[in-house]
What does this fold into?
Amino acid sequence: YPPEDLAIIARHSAARLGCDLTPEAADFLGANAAGEPRRVNIRLLRVVRNMQNATGAGVAGLEVAQKALQLAGLRPLGLTKPQFDALEFIEQMPHRTAGLSSVGAALQMGPKDVMSEVEGYLIYKRLLLITPRGRTLSLAGLAYLEKARKEMATW
It folds into this structure.
């Protein structure tokens, strides 16, 4: 799903959960849900609702949405820890390229798990390329890591 659609889903689901989101918060959640409505509904909005209940806050703004992403264990764009760790591992390798087995060993996952749980969204977002030499970090992947590290430093 595109981020715009996920933002709409976030607003509708928030209303069902009794949460009030600012448009900026809904847009942020949509952009950081990795294209998955369930990630908005289950992982992010429930954290937002719990934060609102705990603090007694009225409307959840951008800061609450950013904190929810962090508390849900996600990275910018909605990447999971293994996805982010894979990008960082490949970044450190010569020519920013690593074999599937090496990535799996670094993540303590089997090759099939890496392919099914880690690579799909990274390839879709063109952060990771599969080449004859192995898994290669794209220029977009490098730019993402730089931007994500700056953003996460403010958390």
Notes: Strands lie at 20-21, 59-60, 97-98, 128-131, 134-137.
